[in-house]
């Protein structure tokens, strides 16, 4: 695995401290004021943003499970290990995309495929394995046979998911491990989904009383209140910072 990316911030969990992030503003007709919002850097390496990403993905996974299970689709949890000849972390990391591409192609031939995949490194060896919440289609024996033919290892775990709570618990458990695993390459996708997995927008995007968010400027980590004060004097309207 590679070292952590050298993001230019002090990595603390109280708030996102990436320097010079964009500042957005929108007019609230209900409050008769302008709101400023500074989004986080959105990186898993940032403790604050990682916690928000974890909460977002747990919510999105649960929403997708509810939507698909409401249509009669059943789900399993599936754990796939890499081939035993791949001894180190880099070998498993390089092989994972190709192995999953082959196996998912086989699965699509068998029918509709809906899944969420979360890669996870072994705590001691660093070898990557894959956790999935996937719609039910094959038995464990069939998964072992098809996985082995696609370059995976023999160890395959398959368990049924029968309610909303089970899906949330599974997602929260392995996404929580993403927070403690900081040795991924920069830009590595820690959560992968099938096409058309339902989206889950942020709460502030659902606020219909706000107009369109518009880019204002880039600004340091601290001092956003001073910017709001200056804009209030210039625009002659109340300006508040949305946290």
Structure description:
The protein has helices spanning 47-70, 89-110, 140-149, 164-180, 224-235, and strands at 21-28, 33-37, 75-82, 115-121, 128-135, 152-161, 192-193, 214-219, 239-242. It is an alpha+beta fold and 243 residues long. The chain has 2 domains: 21-43 and 204-242, no CATH class; 47-193, 2-Layer Sandwich (Alpha-Beta Plaits). The strands form 2 sheets. The chain has a 5-stranded antiparallel sheet with strand order 6-3-5-4-7, sandwiched between helices. Strand 4 and strand 5 form a beta hairpin. Helix 1 runs antiparallel to helix 4 (164-180). The longest helix is centred in the first third of the chain and has 24 residues, at 47-70. It is elongated. Mean pLDDT is 86; it is low at 1-9.
Q: Got a strand count?
A: 9
What is the total domain count? 2
Oligomer designation: single chain
Return Rg in Å: 22 Å
- Class by SSE composition: alpha+beta
The CATH topology of the largest domain turns out to be Alpha-Beta Plaits
**Helix fraction?**
25-40%
Side by side, the strands of the main sheet go 6-3-5-4-7
């Amino acid at each position: 695995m590679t070292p952590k990316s050298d993001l230019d911030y002090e990595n603390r969990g109280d708030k996102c401290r990436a320097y010079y992030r964009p500042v957005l503003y929108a007019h609230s007709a209900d409050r008769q004021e302008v709101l400023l919002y500074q989004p986080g850097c959105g990186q898993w390496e940032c403790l604050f943003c990682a916690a928000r990403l974890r909460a977002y993905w747990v919510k999105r996974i649960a929403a997708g499970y509810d939507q698909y299970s409401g249509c009669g689709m059943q789900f399993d949890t599936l754990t796939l290990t890499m081939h035993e000849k791949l001894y180190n972390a880099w070998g498993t990391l390089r092989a994972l995309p190709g192995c999953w591409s082959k196996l998912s192609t086989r699965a699509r031939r068998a029918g509709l495929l809906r899944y969420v995949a979360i890669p996870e490194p072994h705590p001691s060896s660093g070898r990557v394995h894959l956790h999935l919440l996937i719609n039910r289609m094959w038995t464990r024996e069939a998964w072992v046979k098809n996985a082995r033919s696609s370059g995976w290892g023999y160890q395959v775990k398959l368990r049924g998911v029968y309610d909303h709570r089970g899906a949330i618990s599974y997602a929260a458990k392995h996404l929580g491990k993403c927070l403690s695993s900081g040795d991924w390459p920069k830009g590595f996708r820690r959560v992968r989904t099938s096409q058309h997995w339902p989206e889950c927008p942020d709460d502030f995007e659902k606020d219909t009383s706000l107009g369109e968010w518009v880019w204002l400027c880039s600004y340091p980590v601290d001092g956003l209140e001073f910017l709001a004060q200056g804009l209030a004097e210039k625009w002659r309207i109340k300006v508040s910072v949305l946290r």
